[in-house]
Design a protein that fits this description.
mainly alpha
Length: about 475
């Protein structure tokens, strides 16, 4: 299956306008992510403990314990590539005395880069500038691609590696080095975040299948990809063994069996539930464009090869996740894993709403109307994560309130043994708290706990836990006890 004719022509003036619009889109996307980061939340999510361990290791190394610091970084196999990459922002943060917002702002660049990669993938697959821009807009407007940017987690970096694999895999004049690079990028995807193995598998399948029906070319591509993947893996294993005595293969085997939080028999429910809770109206758009392509083909309408590729990749990733959960009972599906399908749904949205189908009667207003609709959907979806208040920020606000009222410094405020107590100002796990407020307690300050944000409940919670969180009073409170 061919992706489409390469290098679709975009007239010079329109090309300049598309590039200007792309730059503006990337600038706005990053600015929104910076605003999200500045709203706080770093260090709240449990997966951020990996970055915090790296930060401690950097400080340990700076104190002279180089071997101990490096051992702290590579002591476990989970998402080892991210921990190695995190040495850079952690070193800058420690060296300059910055807050956790600084490395979060650096990592948010990966999320913005993912939007650019979607544009470049669409162009390489044969889309003109407007279609590629529409795909980038759909990607930038995804809430699931947005709200994680405030946290110090590996998902967007791994996604960038996987999308780079797709971009390389779509190259039409392929040499052995291209397939080797594709294999290396597939390993990097898994190495940075182990849960994105299904994106690497889909990228490999795409690169190999584009050589069909030439079986020899398909075999060559597959063979060279295996060389790139295995060579990269062997290099990582040997380097860690020689430098630090760390057995990466044994560590991977041990790690694979401990990711069990959630429902192994509800992979399909996790996929659809998460996408709906995170995206709402955009989920409906994706459903419509996914159905539109096969329906158009059944009615005899021409459908370009790239549309089938995007649909196959999105469905393939979902199928791998559901099979690993429902059928094999091996891998629990989390919301962050479902994100792997979103770039392909965005590419499909670009094709259906901004691609060849926009031509014909009324074509002049279809693309602008679609762009406005996607922008409004994004604005509605982004409002919720931008409004979130996290425990650290709530506690700081509460201490400032008490300090101003009592005329003392915030550091002198006693909220542990005195009349004032904070309630629900931590990550709530595994079930929501059931404690009642002390009799006669007066609430001085109150805000919704961030776990009111429903997409968070699709990260390791089973159905019983989600139901309990939805019923519970999770609000953070500062109370005064008489």
């Amino acid at each position: 299956m061919r992706a489409g004719r390469p290098g679709s022509v975009t007239p010079g003036g329109r090309r300049s306008a598309v590039i200007a619009a792309l730059i503006a889109l990337l600038a706005v996307s990053y600015a929104l992510r910076v605003a999200l980061v500045l709203g706080g939340g770093q260090g709240f999510w449990p997966d951020e403990s990996r970055y915090l361990r790296v930060l401690e290791a950097v400080q340990q190394i700076a104190g002279g314990d180089v071997a101990g610091g490096l051992q702290a970084v590579v002591g476990r196999a989970d998402h080892l590539g991210f921990k190695l990459l995190a040495l850079v922002p952690a070193s800058l943060q420690a060296g300059l005395g910055l807050s956790l917002a600084a490395p979060a702002g650096m990592l948010a660049l990966a999320s913005t880069f993912d939007v650019l990669l979607v544009y470049r993938i669409a162009r390489r697959a044969g889309a003109d500038g407007l279609e590629a821009l529409g795909a980038a807009l759909a990607m930038a407007g995804s809430n699931a691609m947005f709200y994680w940017s405030r946290h110090l987690v590996p998902y967007d970096i791994a996604l960038a590696c996987g999308l780079a694999l797709v971009y390389v895999g779509l190259k039409r004049e392929v040499r052995a080095r291209d397939s080797i690079l594709a294999g290396a990028l597939g390993f990097a995807t898994f190495f940075v975040y182990n849960g994105y193995w299904s994106l690497a598998v889909s990228g490999f399948a795409l690169h190999a299948s584009l050589a069909l029906p030439d079986m020899r070319a398909t075999a060559r591509r597959t063979g060279w990809m295996l060389v790139g993947f295995a060579g990269s893996a062997a290099l990582a294993v040997l380097a860690l063994r020689q430098a630090l005595g760390f057995d990466l293969l044994s560590a991977w085997r041990g790690w694979s069996g401990i990711v069990t939080q959630g429902d192994l028999d509800d992979g399909h429910g996790m996929v659809f539930g998460y996408v709906w809770e995170a995206e709402r109206a955009l989920a409906l758009v994706w459903g419509l464009v996914a159905v539109a392509v096969p329906l158009a083909w059944l009615r005899g309408r021409r459908v370009d090869g790239r549309a089938w590729i995007w649909l196959a990749c999105a469905l393939g990733i979902v199928a791998l996740l559901v099979a690993g959960s429902n059928l094999l009972g091996k891998f629990v599906v989390y919301g962050r894993l479902v994100r792997q399908s979103i770039p392909f749904l965005s590419l499909l949205t670009g094709y259906v709403l901004f691609g060849p189908w926009r031509r014909g009667a009324g074509a002049g207003w279809r693309a602008p109307l679609a762009a406005v609709a996607l922008g409004l959907i994004a604005a509605l979806n982004f409002a919720a994560p931008l409004r979130l208040t996290f425990p650290a920020e709530f506690v700081a606000r509460g201490r400032a309130l008490l300090a101003e009222r009592d005329g003392v410094a915030p550091a002198a405020v006693d909220t542990e043994t005195g009349r004032h107590l904070f309630v629900n100002t931590r990550f709530l796990w595994p079930m929501p708290p059931r404690q009642a407020l002390p009799e006669g307690a007066r609430v001085l300050l109150q805000a919704p706990h961030p776990q009111h944000f429903r997409p968070y409940l699709y990260e390791g919670c089973n159905r019983r836990q989600r139901a309990a969180f939805l019923r519970a009073d999770l609000d953070m409170k500062l109370i005064e006890v008489e």
